[in-house]
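your task:
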Amino acid sequence: VQVVESGGGSVQTGGSLRLSCAASGYSSNYCLGWFRQAPGTEREDVAAIGSDGRTGYAESVQGRFIISQNNAKNVLYLQMNSLKPEDTAMYYCAAGRAQLGYYGTCALDFRYLGQGTQVSVSE
């Protein structure tokens, strides 16, 4: 499994960014997801998408972030709108170890991670 994230950057509060993740070698039946981690904080699973197109979001980003895939399912996106300073973190994508859960959660496989992409939101 290989993932490569891109698209991060610095924006002001209320701005938007679109993250991309080139993913290969994962099971197409399993979910994919984005998680983030800021220094000194715990990892937070942000969004996930199943092979059937169902999605799930953390409460903190619900209504602001949108996860999607291209038709070939080899690129994962995270459209981030109405960004807030608390969204500042390193963002990673990962393949799942199973199908998307009933409640939209994805059991991510942390053995295969990319470098991540930094998102910084200033006030």
Q: What stands out?
A: Residues 1 and 25 are 4 Å apart (CA to CA). The chain has a mean pLDDT of 96.
